[in-house]
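re: ur question from yesterday

yeah so i grabbed the chain u mentioned. its 300 aa long if i counted rite. heres the sequnce exactly as i have it in my notes:
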Amino acid sequence: MNKIFSAIFKLLIIFAVIIFQLDCAPAKKDPKQLKVVVTILPLAEFVEQVGGDLVAVMVMVPPGSSPHAYEPLPSQMVDVSEADMLVAVGAPIEFELVWLDKLREMNRHMTVVKASEGIPLQKSLSSHAHQSEKHHHDGNLDPHIWVSPRNAIRMVKNISQALSELDPDHQELYQKNSTAYINQLDALDQEIRHQLTGKKNRKFMVYHPEWGYFASEYGLEQIPIEVEGKQPTAQGLKRFIDQAHAENIRLIIASPQFDTRSAEIISRQINGKLAIISSLDRDYLGAMKKISHILFEEME
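ran it thru and got these structure tokens back, copy pasting raw so excuse formatting
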């Protein structure tokens, strides 16, 4: 009996050693995968939807961080140095304005893709404390092009073309994947248009003016609260509250990447709806459906 127990014990030890070695062994990366670096999270979904298992994606600006202020970690710079492709928005987003040239210098062999190629940029909307009306900054272009599903379709096409050129052996798969995802984006666009049909009051307030392309696409008007990137003064808050009452604006949208105190104050004073939505959500389809549903529920 003791011999049996001893044999069983030895087998258990051998099994445990094998499991330990498997757990500790470094994960092997598929050498066929393309290493793709993207600047922001929505681009990660676009690349993954097109590339599928053929791509390994690394995001420069992580969840919860703002591309207006983020600085990459040394480990991320190593990832860039080993990347096959870098996909950037290609619009004047602060992170890219500061870091894109530096990232190119880290790896002169990687393909750099401007996802916004072919998309006309629009001026960024901003509010000033000394004026009651909104106005455009001269030369200040809005970089948030991806919040329009129609623009997202153009970006996916650009990414698909770039992957096909870099990896022509899998061109057919990239085109098949991009077509399937574009069909989802097209269905999303039609759903949003249907939801917002018949809405009379098409205005909503935002803390940071990141929904301009969405608003333009669907005939809406966003009214930004921030004043040149800063919280409004007490006088400015009162003006926004008075405007919301006068124009029957019930919805305030804020992003988790920014301070939401001003939006919270206004929403309380007008007894309105405060929605926290990020335009930088990796789940692009989910984020777009969320904002369209809230607009449908809150707009008259």
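noticed a couple things. The chain has two domains: 34-118+141-192, 198-298. also The domain at 198-298 is CATH 3.40.50.1980 (Rossmann fold).
anyway ttyl
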